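Chain A, query sequence.
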Amino acid sequence: MTTPTPAGPPALDTAATTTHGAQLSRSLGVGGNVLITLSGISPASSVFILGGAALATYGTGVFWGFLLAGVISLLVAYCYAELGSRHPIAGGDYTLVNRVLGPAAGAAVFFINLITLPLIVAIFGIGVADYLGVAIAGLDPMWTALIVIALATVTACFNIRTNAWVTGAFLFVEMAALAFLALLGFIHIERPVTALLDPQALDAATGGLAPLGIAGLVLAVTQGIFSYNGYGGAIYFAEETRNARRTIARAVLWSALITVVAEIVPLSAILLGADSLEELFGAALPVESFLTARSGEAVSIVILVAIALAIVNAIIAIALQSGRLLFAAARDQAMPAAIARPLATISPTTRMPVRATIVMGVIALAACFVPFDILLNATGSTLAFSYGFIAIAALVVRRRRAGETVPTGGFRMPLWPAPPVVALIAIATIFVVGILDPAQWLSLGLAAGIVAAGFLYYLLYLRSNPGAAHLLEADDDEPEPVK
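Chain A, predicted structure.
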């Protein structure tokens, strides 16, 4: 039986605004967008937390793993850049997938981000006490997380330019910490650069180094991809970036490139400058151990406090992204009108989606009470699903529909379709390795369940509501006067 075609989306009044009826403040330049995006990635906390865990598990394989992960991340960044240039609309992955692959896939990606963004904020919040604790004894992780997330949510409700300045100041501190870490390694090199090219990890049985197998190297690549994640966050601020159709791709690509360099350089410096690789890989916290050995206890405390500030900065940036995700979905009528109406409003004072930001902040606060292992498992494999949807969208985005015109002045990735194809192959490899590893089954199962819930939401609600999830076209991205 043929389903009747629903009526087209309601006419959208774009005469009053160039931001799809929302009055978001188009006052960010490319630099401001990159500052907020890099803050959400938090290269410093990635090096200390994810990079440190990778050193302990994969040894010198971290160099090849993070290098290959950097190549894959730049390919995915090309996908984000072209998709964002064609659809410079707030909402991140959800808006891109929704407009290219349709509302069913869009609902799946919306569910991924709706669940994982608050969970990531909760994970970061709980981790703040570990680093602040070196300077302030007796901090309770739960209360620290609740206070930090509440303050970050309030900050994320300020106007976008204020947030760019706040996150930029924090970002300067964490990039300085990374530069100092790299300097410590490079001024006291203990082994030749060729040592980086031989993947070896600590053998628990012998206490010495042993060759790292292909499976271990693939897992190191996976860790690197997760560590670099977040450059696509530039799309969340597309409606607040001037001349977005022509500049949003630069924000994405610069964010990805800076992240890869900012993480792989200090990790390489640590591998070259550590007194003993066996001791480094055997340490409970390899990066902190190297830092203390090279700079002393007092300087180490200062750097670790800087990392705590970097984590707080990341929470602010992710709170900004979370608010725009919920705002964009509400504006698309991807939820019942009684819920969507208040969430799709903009504060007339700050021109920010304050209600949507607060709601996502409250969800993040509630997530702090979820057991930490569940938080980690629920976010561990969702990234591969998100990247998979983005790569597929980048493959089909150049397909012309009847009556569709190709936007002018946008970014077109070089060597298309090679970047999304290679990215999909890499993502498929990660899935295969995850399926073969029983330790990854829970994480993969939770991620697959979230995606399935999104498709089920489409089947049970969106498909039967013609007014829901209508696609807003980005028909004008010229800047508004900055007030």
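Confidence is low (pLDDT under 50) at residues 1-19, 471-483. The longest strand covers residues 200-202.
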